[in-house]
Amino acid sequence: MRTAVRWERERGLPVHRPPGAKRGAVYAFSRELDSWLAGQSSPSTLHRVSAPPDFSGTSPAPSRHLSRLPTEINHPRVNDAQLDYRKGRHFWEIQTEAGLKKSIGAFRNALEMDPSYALAYVGLADAFILASTRGLMAPAAGLLRARTAAARALEIVPDLPEAKCSEAWVRFFYDHRLAEAEVGFAEVTRCKPAYSFAWHGVIRVLLAEGRVNEALEAASTTWKLDAISAANTGLLCLCYYYARQFRAAVAMIEHAITAGEGYSVLYAVLGFCYLQLGNSERAIDHLESAHSLFPEVPLILAYLGYVCAVSNQPTRANAALKLLQRNGDQDQTIAYYLAIVHLGLGDLDRTFAYLGRSYESRSPWLLFLNPEPIFDSVRRDTRFIDLLLKMGLPRR
């Protein structure tokens, strides 16, 4: 709903308001939407907002030569392909698992109609990147697919900023080269100061390095520039969580869920925040409800198992563990999530064994060992310290 209102304001989306309806209710006619989509200019304009972010100390300032950069990407005008691309970006921006699956299908349809459509390859890469963080595909396989798609985009349009951003995400998540990824994200923000996915990369690198306060400040700035964006809201909620500001995280996540913008990761984090605030019963009830909404999301099951385990409910924790093992196609795909449940059960040997497997499978979540509160109890364990060193992460 909020996205529709934002697009009405920024892009002229043809929506109408029914007389006497509650504030915020809108509707649209399919023929008007089709006409609007067909009349939009180049897909590259979908990334623009009115003002660029300015994060002091997080990256170089935008180039003073920005006005000389091209604003359009030259590729054949294929309206059907553009339509599918825009559908893909819409589903991608929703940030849900179902949306990611639809976005992958839409980007592939666009490429079937126009194999030279560089931005569609970028969209496919970005969808694979997010899918790898949600347990929708094996992380290593998904990230390698993202790398291939981004490389294809750069073959078609060399130095395409959006493709370079996708490459930086793969360098971050798969290669664990934080410094190179940060340089890549910064380069993109100089070329496209309003490209939020690049700024999200800057913030994620800060989090991985344990610079949580800087990340929280940057995420707050991004959110203020576009508070309607589900991705911006979600990242700010995660930063509050990683900063141990659990009450602020709860307030913001509950608001996002009420507004219909909560996605699975936020549901999982909310349950853990309830636990940290001393309400384990509410945490369990919430996570069980979240699991019924998102049955295929392993992070929710992992947090549910952990919360049950530390709340003296080992039977329910083991039930969550069995569900994880049944839903996962292989141990490496779900290794990180299994480690969380075993941590709650107090089985540290299995915890670190599965963390080792998640390193081999390139689980993106492993990069956030530093700020993740769930690992506070094992930070002095030599195996935890060794894992940080192996990944090139600073000790918090």
Descriptive notes:
The protein has 396 residues and is mostly helical. Among the domains are: 1-32, no CATH class; 279-396, Serine Threonine Protein Phosphatase 5, Tetratricopeptide repeat, CATH 1.25.40. It has 19 helices and no strands.
SSE order and pairing:
Elements: H1 2-11, H2 30-39, H3 79-94, H4 97-113, H5 118-133, H6 139-156, H7 161-173, H8 178-191, H9 196-208, H10 212-225, H11 230-242, H12 246-258, H13 264-276, H14 280-293, H15 298-310, H16 314-327, H17 331-345, H18 348-360, H19 382-391
Radius of gyration over C-alpha positions, nearest whole angstrom: 21 Å
Shape: globular
Corresponding CATH architecture of the domain at 279-396: Alpha Horseshoe
Indicate the CATH topology of the domain at 279-396: Serine Threonine Protein Phosphatase 5, Tetratricopeptide repeat
SSE-based structural type: mainly alpha
Fraction of residues in helices? Answer: 55-70%
Describe the main β-sheet briefly. Answer: none
SSE string, helices as H and strands as E = HHHHHHHHHHHHHHHHHHH
The average pLDDT value, as a whole number, equals 84
N/C terminus separation: 40 Å
Supply the CATH class of the domain at 279-396: Mainly Alpha
Low-pLDDT windows of residues: 40-73
Number of strands: 0
- Strand share of the residues? under 5%
